[in-house]
Structures are given as structure tokens and as C-alpha cells.
Amino acid sequence: MNFYKIARPLLFSLNAERAHHLTLSGLRLAQKLGITSFLRPKSKKNPVKVMGLNFPNRVGLAAGLDKSGNCIAGFGSIGFGFVEVGTITPHAQDGNPKPRLFRVREHEAIINRMGFNNPGIERALNNIQKSRKGFDGILGINIGKNKNTPNERALDDYLHCFRKAHNYADYIAVNISSPNTSGLRELQTPKFARELLAPLMNEKERLNEDTGKNVPVAVKIDPDMDNDQIKGLSDLFSELQIDAVIATNTTVSRKNISDHQLSDETGGLSGSPLNAKSNEVIAELHAELKSEIPIIGVGGINSKKDAEEKLSAGAALIQVYTGLIYQGPSLIRQLISIEE
């Protein structure tokens, strides 16, 4: 029985953000009661090694669903091979005013302008310690800067989170591409990107040497850059030996939903309208990076075919978010079965 088909109409009758929190609470409870064992894929794991890490399968949860690190084992129990929590900032922040999360049902899409709402790195790590128990997959911690930190001081925030997260994460994702924190995407420009990423990679080497634990660094980029911008970042990633690129974050474009009544809502658009653009960025990155730096493909995966297109474009791993909201856990079972 597809339990999600029964639950979805109820969840979709609620305010999107309320439904989000209710779903996470329900998933935590279901995992503790062992109910999610009925949802877990019965197929083989299809393990893969990426960034020097052994992933049980290539299907991950994208950052944004578990912002506080409260539901790691819950998501693992429905089949995810890796879970990325966050984005987490040094200090707790409420994010942008509500309403800030909107379903665009006709397009199987979401618009969000959450604004890095999270409990801050200290509390998030406490959550992670508790909610990771029972999870045997790979954990990524996605870090960012606080809203009131100017870009000239952004490195301080990223370094603070990086140092705190190092002992807890299997990899750390550096988010410089959310459209919902004013000015954040400026960190993708050559000047800011170098000033931010070079010290982070140096800190990674220092911490890895001190602790004996290798924690790869992935950088999350946006889908709204042109080819010249992608090439420039690719050159920098190769120079700095970034461990992976996550492509892509949400888009500010409304081209594919211009006829919808919600198209004027500000924020990042995810889901099906993002799929083709995300694939284009992945293909461009792959052409520039070859096989030197792996790509984690995310954006608009609503079916097995969508995932296969991401892999064909050059992704080594895939992540889902909006597709899970519309399709439910059955989507994970489909994706895990993909053989590359």
C-alpha cells in the first residue's frame, strides 16, 4: 500500500510550512516505531565511492528539508544513502517573515524564501548527535553565513561552522548560492569565491591532519549563472582542489511558471521547472571538470527518468527535495534501483 498517497491530500490541505514540520515529526515517530521499515527499499544497495567516501547508494536528501538536523535516521530509514542537513549558521536565526513557502502544484514545484532559518551550529550539532543514531549512511552538513554578517566578514562565519562541524560531518557543503539571503550569491564571484574557499580548503587540510579524519568539502552553486561564470568557477574549483560541486540550488527565474498566479512570489523555485536548467549546468560543469571533481546533481528529480538524465549529464550522486514532497518515499525506491 502507498501510504503517502493517503497522507498527501491531508498534508496538502495544510499550510506548506506547517505540513513540513508535521511530516518531519511524523517521520521521526514512524522510524522510532519501526513503521518505516515497510517503506524501505528491498532492492540491493548499489553502493558507490565518491569523494573518498563509501555511499550505500547514490540517492541523497538535499539540504533544506532537515534544517535543524532533527530527522537524520528518519530519512535514512526510508532508503536515503546520504542525508545533507542545514543550511546551518553560527547563530540561530528565524529566517524571513511568513508566509515563505509555497506549493506550485500544477508544476510540481515549490517556491521558498525561508532565509536560513535554523537553531545555530551548537544546537544543531546536539540535534545531529541524537538523530543520527541508527543511520548507517553518509552525513553532509551544509553551512552558511548569518543574515546580518556582511560578505566582507562571511569567511568568519563559514570558518566557525566548518570547525564546529568537522568532527560530526562526513562531508561539509558550503552554501554560497541561496537566493534567500541578501547578497549571498555575490560569494560566487571570482573575488569573493577565492577569498572564501581558499582559506576553507587550508582549514580543511589542517583539521584533517590534526584529527586524522578526512572531511571532504563540496560547494553548492546556483543554476542562474551563464557559461562564462561556470567556467570561471570551474577553474577555481580545480585550482583549489574542491572535493565536489553540488549543482544546483534553486532558481530565481520564473520562465517556466510565468503563467502561474504564484510566479510573482520572491524566493527560490525548485522542482520540475528547474530540471532542464540544472541538467545544463551539470553538463557544463562536467565538460570543464572532466572527472577531476565529482558533481552532486540536484534540481527537479521527480522520476527515475529525471535521475537518469542527471547521471547522464555527469552527476556522480543525486539529491532530491521537492520530488519527495510530491511523490513520497516511493520515489526513493525507484531511484535506488538505477544502475549506472
Keywords:
alpha/beta; eight-stranded parallel β-barrel; three-stranded antiparallel β-sheet; 11 helices; 38% helix
Protein described:
The protein is an alpha/beta fold and 340 residues long. It has a single domain (3-336), classed as TIM Barrel (Alpha-Beta Barrel). The chain is 38% helix and 16% strand. The chain has 11 helices and 13 strands. The protein is globular and about 50 Å long. The model has no long low-confidence stretch (mean pLDDT 93).
Do you know the CATH topology? TIM Barrel
Strand content: 15-25%
Second-tier CATH architecture: Alpha-Beta Barrel
- For the secondary structure, the number of strands is 13
State the distance separating the first and last CA atoms: 29 Å
Largest sheet: 8 strands, parallel, barrel
Mean pLDDT: 93
Strand order of the largest sheet: 3-4-7-8-9-10-12-13
Q: Rg, please?
A: 18 Å
**Which structural class is indicated by helix and strand composition?**
alpha/beta
Judging from the principal axes of the Cα atoms, what is the shape? globular
Low-confidence stretches: none
In the CATH scheme, the class would be Alpha Beta
Number of individual domains:
1
- The CATH superfamily is identified as Aldolase class I
